[in-house]
Structures are given as C-alpha cells and as structure tokens.
Amino acid sequence: MTAQTYVTLNRTGDKMPLVGFGCWKVSPNDAEDTIYNAIQSGYRLIDGAADYGNEVEVGRGINKAINKGLVTRDQIFVVTKLWNTYHNKDRLRGAFDKQLKDLGLDYVDLYLIHFPVPLKHVDINQAYPAGWYQPNKEEIEFEASPMHECWGEMEKLVDAKLARNIGVSNFNVQLILDLLTYAKIKPAVLQVELHPYLQQSRLVAWVQSQGIHITAYSSFGPASFVDLTTDGKTAAPLLEHPIIREIATKHNKTTGQVLLRWSTERNVAVIPKSTNQERIESNLDIFSWSLDKEDLEKIASLEKGLRFNDPYSYNFNLPLFN
C-alpha cells in the first residue's frame, strides 16, 4: 500500500507535498534548468527563499515548466521566505512584492518567516539579498521590529490573496506559544533542521499537536554544512553511516531514501536538493515501502542533539537555539 504523499494544511485545506525540491545552494547559473528538471522529474513543491539569491532563476524554471505544459500553476506548491532585514511592518510588503516579481508569479503557496531575528534594515537597492550583516560591517545589528507586528503583515498577504498560507522557520516552542496568543491566522507550517543526529521528537510532537505541519531541512545532516561549521561540530556523514547503510541494503534502497523516508513516516515533509538525475528521481521514490520497528529503533539511537544550522556556529554571537 502506497503511503500518503501530502499533508493537508490548516485553514485552507491545501495539500502540501511531503517531498519537495530545495533551492538552497542551487547556483543562479543552474537554477532555471535545475528547477525545470525537478518539475519534469515529478517534484510538485519548490522550496526557496530571498536569502538564497536565486529567486529570479527559480521563477524562470517554474514558469518554463508551466509554459511548456508540464504543470499548471495550481499543481505547483511554491514556498519562499521573508529575510531577517525586512521584519519591520513598513518594510515587509515591499520585500515580498520584490520576491513575487522575481519569481514571476501572482501568489505563493506558503510564505515563511525565515528566522525569528529582526535585523537592521538594508535597502534592497543597497544589497540584495542582504545577508546577516549591514554592508561593510562585521557584527550583526538588530532593530525593534516586534514579531506581533511582523506576523500582522504576514496575515495581510493572506488577506490580499498573495500568499495562500503563512508559517515560520527556526522558531522554538516558546515563540510559537506567544505567536498563537495574537495570531488571527495560525501558522500552517514550521520548517526546522531535522535529521537522525537532531531528531527533536518533543518539538515535532507538540507542534503537530497544535495542527501545525513540519518541514525538515538538512535531512542528510552535516552534508550541507561542510563549509559553514566553525565551532568543531563534526559527525560521520549520515549518507555513509553504517546503520543507515545497513537499513538501505535491507530494503534495497539508497541511504538518502532511508533518511527521507524516516522523516515522512513522522508525517514530516522533506526538501532534498540534488543535481544528480538518479538521486533527483530516487529521492521521490520513498512512498512505496516503509521502515520497520527495528529500523526505527536503530535510527533513534543516532540522536546526538547535533545542530548544524546554528548562527552561533558562524561567529554571530547569537545563541538562537540555546
């Protein structure tokens, strides 16, 4: 029996695919063809962000697929994210409008607040994407842009039918609890780092109990962070881990498929990225089989509380997750 391949979002009832294609670290030079190829290969969720610096090209890939008749717009679930320098209630809409124009779309399916970190504004004409620092500065600078005002502007995008769903990324339970006290529109999705080295079981269970779905990023663990980790965090690559290899051999699957299947069996969506056609296709093939109790127990034993996407690791002096 084939497992369900999507989750149904609160409020809208939109069906969000459990497997999408992630756009982080997709070179702008390759993004149009990469995204078009991903859609041609069967992906129906594209996960991007302003901070990735490739939205123009990602949008071209999406629109090329639509114009060539591979899909219609309502068959593609497009996700993007608000960057930290545009949290101010007077800045958010302008930043979103630029993103929508860059993507060449009339609306997005899901708009996320990328980090709960209100950084000092950087004008779009001065630097885009802005990154973590003010131009020519070496320390991050914050601004007084409260989350309740930021979320109110997110809700206005829904009212204007520019974002069908809104959500958050890299938020903890405390901040979500606070948000739920004033939100007129509850977040549809929380996107966080999740993999066997950082399983976050209590977070996952609580957030799902609130009717909020979860998307996992970095499902392959340290693979994406080789060039970012600066504080000595190291671990054996999950794609080559003996336990993951053993389970993959048992099911005649790849290690990547095992890692993705582990998340989707928790009803958690995944957004792997690859430029290898064989892996692009195999990453989608995770619904016709399942892990057994023994597999899950072995994977549970890999928990290390090891977080790789941590601003503190990048010398920002921002212990966001502590």
From TrEMBL:
Keywords: Oxidoreductase. It comes from the Eukaryota. Pfam families: Aldo_ket_red (PF00248). Belongs to the aldo/keto reductase family. The keyword GTP-binding does not apply. Gene3D superfamilies: NADP-dependent oxidoreductase domain (3.20.20.100). One of its GO terms (molecular function) is oxidoreductase activity. The active site is at Y52. The record marks K81 as: Lowers pKa of active site Tyr. InterPro entries: AKR, Aldo/ket_reductase_CS, NAD(P)_OxRdtase_dom_sf, NADP_OxRdtase_dom. Residues 22-303 form the NADP-dependent oxidoreductase domain. Substrate binds at H114. The gene is PARPA_08212.1 scaffold 32258. This is NADP-dependent oxidoreductase domain-containing protein.
